[in-house]
Amino acid sequence: MRTMRGRFAPSPTGEIHLGNAWTALLAWLQVRAAGGTMVLRVEDLDPDRSRTEYGEKLMVDMKWLGLDWDEGPDVGGYYAPYCQAERRGLYQAALERLTAAGLVYPCYCTRAELAASAPHGGENERVYAGICRRRKLDDARQVIRHPALRLAVPPGEICFSDLHAGFRSQDISREIGDFIMRRSDGIHAYQLAVVVDDAAMNITHVLRGDDLLSSTPRQLLLYRLLGLKAPVFTHVPLLIDQEGHRLSKRQQALSIAVLRERGVKAESIIGYLAWKAGLLERCQQVKASELIAGFAVDKLPSGQLIVEYPLPV
Ligand code: GLU
């Protein structure tokens, strides 16, 4: 059997908060409980939103929480580099393979055209109606605008079994349409980059927030089209605030750095998260390493998890 290889793949777009610590802890526990290898990959694909200092800060915060990694931007590893901004050549090579197979086409649609043409698809995503797949491009459009590149999605259901969310299936061509592989500004899409990276880094298990459950069929399609082996997925419920919004980097009060500055201990944060995860019967201080022996994916709760604030520890 292959040794488990899991990863935590945060985007350095702000200070990490309790919600990031939640998925980081669970991904870490899944790997550590199996005696596997933990990878930290910084997803700084989008230069407009990513900041180097947030990448550095998140490593400080994770170490403070007691969550370590065996391969990552600071320690290196066999599959280096571990920052997406340094891996663009790999995304481009994958894109060229898809293009050579006739699966990619340029899209010159403006925002207004997209808004006017797109019927609503599943899970509030807009379905791309395939306008550019069909239209003959006039020369003016080609000169004026750099195109985005889209995948010509074949019809048919993509099915998978998630270790927590169960059986899922989606016909991407109906519910999403041809999705972007490279934006018009030349930045490769998350869907492509994450597949290329997880496959290249030999990741066997992906545990992440269930906001990405709806991305998984697109990623599985890319694994298939690129002839790559897909990992086993576990999508866990996200933490939400009292108003029902998922925690975001805008909620400063729940940033790990702010909690630390206020004197909250790492063991209190970990204990709180472990209690929410069903790994502790009551909310108490605990080290992340003390949770490894008792971890099991089937203990994790379903449904939304509301954060109490201040933390009851
Ligand atoms: N970088 C993504 C995020 O921070 C996570 C990607 C993934 O886990 O697949 O939301």
UniProtKB/TrEMBL annotation:
Keywords, ordered alphabetically: Aminoacyl-tRNA synthetase, ATP-binding, Ligase, Metal-binding, Nucleotide-binding, Protein biosynthesis, Zinc
SUPFAM superfamilies xref list: Nucleotidylyl transferase
Sequence motif: 'HIGH' region, positions: 10-20
Motif position, 'KMSKS' region: 246-250
EC number, UniProt record: 6.1.1.-
Swiss-Prot/TrEMBL cofactor(s): Zn(2+)
Gene3D superfamilies cross-referenced by the UniProt entry: HUPs (3.40.50.620)
Ranges for domain Glutamyl/glutaminyl-tRNA synthetase class Ib catalytic: 4-274
Protein name in the entry: Glutamyl-Q tRNA(Asp) synthetase
